[in-house]
Specification:
Radius of gyration: 23 Å
GO molecular function, one term: gluconate transmembrane transporter activity
Structural class: mainly alpha
Helix content: over 70%
Number of helices: 22
GO cellular component, one term: plasma membrane
InterPro entries: Cit_transptr-like_dom, Citrate_transporter, Glcn_transporter
Number of domains: 1
Subcellular location: Membrane
Protein name: TRAP transporter large permease subunit
């Protein structure tokens, strides 16, 4: 009974999330609650299960709130804009430098964990240069997709927080396991940019004259206007401009504290609390300005935090009622012993295509919980299952039609690139990075087999 109800519940959650009939919060609160009552859970027991589930995720929710506040403030005070401008000037008129700059800008811009912000920073800054040089816009989008895919492993990135929530682990602890793989991923993204830059140089030489056509010039001017508009929106006061070195050092210090947290042993959310408070005091000494910053940046964290809390309810009910254990036992009886110990590797390999069609919430909250339990039964820690599935999903993030940022990225090119063309051009590259990172994790023991 518990196993059947558990599978029905997971199926309903995935279907409703895919069809977008209900918000993730509503799905992950209502469906498990109804399922709990169907299997005979009392009000008192349900209260205990929900409380336990919420206790397991509260640190993650706090961390996400303050990480969004911190990086939002750093973005507002021009930390990322300054770096982007320097890289764009360095690129000049060399196609390889241009593609490498694109990757570096996307990597730096994605320090805040927001794919939408990364696109809005990188595309307006680089698209005019691509147009002027006769380089293909699709190459720009492919490089951004590859860069976002490897940078989204950060502990305040949505997928990592979701995976950590499911396995009841601090996202920063999970990230520390991922750091060597992420470093490799950054080099792979830069290598991809170099290869595509060489291809674009040959393409431009074969298909473009030195003088641009009127059409290219027109497109370039329009893109430059977009970039100018964005810069005007974020005009900084002279005082904040003078504080740029301080803000850059503060950003580096906060990231360094997170990386050294196993030694210092401070909660991740507290590190971001300190960073947020210092950022506000240094840049906005006026109380009204500080409140405005909180109001401006906290809203973007609300939907994810609400989803994390709803996931805590779902996981608490699944574990408390015994549904998760019953589902795992059913799968264990079906999966051959010889195959079971590789279940995390199998789904790590399938993570790319599977993540494209399920969406982030359905992938982590619908598929990961029972798989993690099955892996545990075969002697595979849930940590290894989470790492494998995060690697599979992250690298194809901006190729999935289930991810809103994918459509934002396509929209920034004004229908010049279709989703089909984007997937066709970028899938092998992004999925290949995912598989190389997974293999690296296995070979160096980060993912046990």
């Amino acid at each position: 009974m518990l196993s059947v109800m558990g599978f029905i519940m997971i199926a309903l959650i995935i279907i409703l999330l895919l069809k977008e009939k209900m918000s993730p919060v509503a799905v992950m609160v209502l469906i498990p609650t109804v399922a709990a009552f169907i299997v005979g859970t009392s009000i008192d027991d349900l209260s205990v299960y929900v409380t336990d589930g919420m206790d397991s995720i509260k640190n993650n929710a706090f961390m996400f709130i303050f990480s969004i506040l911190f990086f939002g403030i750093m973005s507002d005070v021009g930390v990322f804009d300054a770096l982007v401008d320097k890289l764009a000037r360095w690129a000049a008129d060399n196609p390889v430098k241009i593609t490498v700059s694109t990757a570096l800008i996307a990597i730096l811009a994605h320090l805040d964990g927001s794919a939408a912000a990364t696109l809005l920073i990188t595309v307006p800054a680089m698209l005019p240069i691509y147009k002027r040089m006769g380089m293909r816009s699709q190459t720009l989008l492919t490089i951004i997709a590859a860069s976002v895919g490897v940078m989204n492993l950060l502990p305040w990135g949505g997928p990592t927080v979701r995976a950590a929530t499911v396995i009841k682990m601090d996202p920063t602890e999970l990230w520390r396991e991922l750091i060597p793989i992420q470093i490799l991923g950054v080099f792979l993204a830069l290598a991809t940019a170099i290869i595509l830059g060489i291809k674009e140089k040959r393409y431009a030489e074969a298909n473009f004259n030195i003088a641009n056509t009127g059409e290219v010039t027109k497109t370039s001017n329009k893109s430059e206007a977009t970039c100018i508009d964005q810069n005007n929106k974020s005009e900084l006061s002279p005082r904040i401009k003078k504080l740029l070195p301080v803000n850059i050092l503060l950003t580096i210090a906060i990231i360094a504290l997170l990386m050294a947290n196993s030694v210092i042993n401070l909660p991740s959310y507290y590190v971001f609390m300190i960073g947020t408070v210092l950022a506000m005091v240094i840049n906005f000494p006026n109380l009204k300005d500080q409140n405005d910053q909180i109001k401006k940046n906290a809203a973007s964290a609300l939907s994810i935090v609400a989803t994390i809390m709803a996931a805590g309810v779902m996981v608490g009910i699944m574990e408390g009622t015994g549904m998760l254990e019953a589902m795992a036992n059913t799968l264990i009886n079906i999966i051959p012993q010889s195959l079971g110990k590789y279940i995390h590797i199998i789904f790590g390999i399938l993570g790319g295509p599977l993540g494209m069609i399920t969406g982030t919430d359905a992938y982590f909250y619908g598929i990961l919980p029972p798989l993690a339990s099955v892996g545990e039964a075969f002697g595979i820690k849930s940590l290894y299952t989470a790492i494998a599935m995060v690697l599979g999903k992250n690298c194809i993030l901006l190729l999935s039609p289930m991810v809103p940022a994918t459509w934002l990225g396509l929209g920034l090119f004004e229908d010049e690139i279709s989703l089909k063309d984007h997937i066709k051009a970028s899938f092998v590259c992004c999925y290949g990075i995912s598989l190389i990172m997974l293999l690296f994790g296995v070979l160096f023991g980060i993912i046990a087999v």
